[in-house]
Design goal:
Largest sheet: none
Radius of gyration: 41 Å
Order of helices and strands: HHH
Number of helices: 3
Strand content: under 5%
Helix content: over 70%
Number of strands: 0
Shape: rod-shaped
Structural class: mainly alpha
């Protein structure tokens, strides 16, 4: 191996070493991302409690309307008070 080949191999080895060390440094995270603050956690907890309360109210309304729709004595048609008076009126007069 001549001097030219030796220098070429030496440059190749140093270049590969520099690229590898730069990649490792770039992949390392210095300290990681900062964690959430106490205020953020508290506001998140309050938001979840409010959401839970809303879900409970919606479930209660759903159960109420479901029971109302499933009631057996529910009439299918609404009758006006005038129609009731007309049906009762002539029979009372006779």
């Amino acid at each position: 191996m001549g001097v030219f080949e030796f220098v070429l191999v030496l440059v190749l080895i140093t270049t590969v070493g520099k690229v590898a060390s730069q990649r490792m440094a770039r992949d390392r995270v210095p300290g990681g991302p900062p964690g959430p603050s106490v205020g953020d956690l508290e506001s998140l907890r309050e938001g979840l409690e409010e959401l839970n309360g809303r879900v409970v109210r919606l479930e209660e309304e759903r159960d109420f309307y479901k029971a109302l729709l499933d009631a057996p004595e529910r009439t299918r048609e609404l009758r006006s008070p005038e129609a009731d008076d007309r049906e009762v009126g002539p029979s009372e007069g006779s």
